Amino acid sequence: MPTLNKLSALQVKSASPGKYNDGGGLWLHRRQDGGGQWFLRVQIHGRRREMGLGSLSEVSLKEARQLAGRWRAVAREGKDPIKERQRLLREAAKADHVLATIAHEAYEARKAELKNDGKAGRWFSPLELHVLPKLGRIPIEEVDQQDIKNALSPIWHSKGETARKALNRLGIVMRHGAAMGLDVDMQATDKAKALLGKSRQKRKHIPSMPWQEVPAFYASLDEGSITHLALKLLILTAVRSHPLRFCQLDETDGDTWIIPAERMKTGKEFRVPLSIEARNIIEQAKPFAREGFIFPSVRKGVISDATMSRLMERRELEARPHGFRSSFRTWCAEATDTPREIAEMALAHEVGGKVELSYRRTDYLEKRRVLMESWAQHVQGQSSNVIQLAEGQ
Q: Taking every annotated instance into account, which residue ranges of this chain make up the domain Tyr recombinase (predicted)?
């Protein structure tokens, strides 16, 4: 049996340039520059192999002996320790590149593009709920269309919109993996979509109230409560529920309400013209204000979207608060001559391609002011003539 542990720590530290045998195939190569390298010599199928075990500055004599013992055992099994180490490194790399890890990295990289840095969690939730539980531990390079199809097929027809979002997000994750230099199948999501076929689920729009019925509903909101006042301002401004519920006193400046970019779906600051009636509602709501919020909750924070929805449910109405945006837009189309660009801008929708938008830098605030005043008159049941907001005006 070959002699082991021939060297001492002092010999290793004071060794001059040259090669020193510790026994059992473990060697130290001390260089002229003072550095050193451990290596192991083994015989595999009659062929000598030399395997580096690390530099002297990073691997002690004790650690070098432990490594040598580990790889000698591999050699005794008839395996090439160098190839075995490479295989293990590849496996470790794959473990670091599982789909779940890359998905979280892709999410972090996109946060700046998402509303409020994605804190609401809506961007990631389709992946977290419907993809990662089944595919999260698979190396992203091994994910194929059949894996994706199997993961999404249970919800493809029952939760079509969620499944579509999950597939879209997964495509972004796959592209992120490719950008990292990983060998991913860039067409996997498209091929999975072909395997899944067309979703049988029909997209449902949020129920809205016919614009002709809005005045009667508006008049019924006569309690002066936070919920009634919030619904009134929601109707008058045609904004989404989130920016309205989080409206703060210092955001309203006279006849204009400036909604910060982080509360807009577009991620851009938006100016809302306030009609006379809208300003009256804000004045009525000010006594309820707490911590700067115009529509605070009874307990903490602000009122929820469900609070307004439940009011409409109790009245056995099919329409929901978000549907008043549709009521307003239909009124614009059927009862006014409002140009499409202005009507869409009133809803904070962008109309036109990138080139057109880069040149059209107006938000039509003054024209929208006229429009929203006319809408307020309709909402209050006051007769108003068909308004005209031609492009040239």
A: 204-372
Residue matched to tokens 């008839």: 78
Distances (CA, A) of 107 to 87, 123, 185, 199, 279: 30, 8, 19, 26, 40
Which of 200-204, 213-217, 334-338 comes out lowest in average pLDDT?
Answer: 200-204
**Which whole-number Å values give the CA distances from 282 to 1, 88, 190, 230, 342, in the listed order?**
93, 66, 49, 9, 24
Question: In the chain, what are the helix, strand and coil shares in percent, each to the nearest 5?
Answer: 55, 10, 35
Joined together, the tokens standing for residue 226 give 């936070």
Do 177 and 189 contact (CB within 8 A), yes or no? no
Q: Do 359 and 267 share a structural domain?
A: yes
Return d(Cα 146, Cα 64) in angstroms, integer.
46
H or E, element range at 134:
helix 132-135
Domain containing 45 equals: 9-90
CB 107 within 8 A of CB 117: no
Token reading at 321:
């608060």
Do 83 and 106 reside in the same domain of the chain?
Answer: no
pLDDT at site 21: 92
What pTM was computed for the model?
Answer: 0.58
